[in-house]
Amino acid sequence: MTAKPLFLLTDPAHYEVSYVINPWMAPDEWSRDRAHHQAAAREGLLALKRALEAAGAKVRVMAGVMGLPDLVFPANAAIVLDRRALVARFSCSERQGEEDVFLREFEQLKREGFITAVGTFPRGVFQEGAGDCIWDQNRDWFWAGFGQRSVRASLDVIENFFGVPVVSLELVSPRFYHLDVCFLPLTGGEVVYYPPAFSEAARAKIRALVPADLLIEASDADAAAFSVNAVNIGRSIIMARPPERLKKILEAKGYEVTGIDLAPFMMSGGGAYCMTLRLDRSRDEKTSAAGLNRAAAGVP
Fold it and tell me: In which band, very low, low, confident or very high, does the pLDDT at 64 lie, cut at 50, 70 and 90?
């Protein structure tokens, strides 16, 4: 029997929007109805947990920490593959306190046998976890963003630690500060992406490596709804409530789309993918035959 996917989430008890480190963050709006937003955040996290479990996953929830509100976005905690974890270094001072918290969590996961090796980036080499480094199980490589929060120097560290290819994509918009808010590889081999988030060179690279029939361009509305920031398990896709256009495109390709109200987290610039970190990601993971070996030959 295939093991269930395992995802890490963070309890939102200490979540709030109290500072601005990206254009989506709205602390004034949060403070106008703090109690409502906190209650909605708790419900949103529970809805996400239920959706993950309904899709066949297991969920591990770590405790939040007072004063570290963005700890609710563990996608930024680390890059994880083949039971090896490379823990993030944050570029914004507001999030740097998360590094030790996540490092302790991964050391605990190692003690429990979920992880076999824990590494860190050199000081000054900023890289913000799976939010900027997304495994493509069909193509057997990482897509890695740089240019906003993560630096180009992080790419060699990732490649050396995991021993797998890394395809770099330059991000050019502060609104799309991590790769996961504008880029989503799917299990069938398709890739959903928002072209304005990328440099022309990055767009050309995506088009060269992903056949045209597998590319899905997200609209402005899709990106603003954080629908590209989604979790894909098999044929299930879990996302913040998507525009009907994108939902129909994905359903026509055979996916079951579950939309969740994640408005409190979108006020910090995050959606479903940001709120999760898959801990069991493996190069040996089996996928649908349709998506396998569809990549263009070679990695630039």
Answer: very high
Amino acid letter, 146: F
Topology of the domain covering 6-278: L-arginine/glycine Amidinotransferase; Chain A (3.75.10)
Cβ-contact 206, 193 below 8 angstroms: yes
| 14 noted as active-site residue | no
Catalytic residue selected from 37, 133, 178, 182? 178
Smallest CA-to-CA distance from 61 within 71, 261, 70 is with 71
Residue 178 bears catalytic tag: yes
The answer to whether 162 and 144 have CB atoms below 8 angstroms apart is no
For the residues of 177-221, what is the DSSP string, one character each? Answer: -SGGGTEEE-TTS-EEE-GGGB-HHHHHHHHHHS-GGGEEEPPHH
3-state DSSP helix/strand/coil percent for the chain, to nearest 5? 35, 20, 45
Instruction: Flag whether pLDDT at 1 surpasses 90.
Output: no
The domain locations on the chain are 6-278
226 Cβ contact list (under 8 Å, min separation 6): 181, 239, 240, 262, 266, 270, 271, 272
State which amino acid sits at residue 144: A
Residues 195-203, mean pLDDT to the nearest whole number: 98
Among residues 37, 133, 182, 274, the one annotated as catalytic is: 274
Residue 60 has pLDDT above 80, yes or no: yes
The number of angstroms, rounded, from the C-alpha of 222 to the middle of its chain's C-alpha atoms is 16
Look at residue 246 and tell me whether its pLDDT is greater than 80. Answer: yes
Cβ neighbors of 198 (< 8 A, separation 6 or more) are 169, 170, 171, 172, 182, 206
DSSP letter, residue 299: -
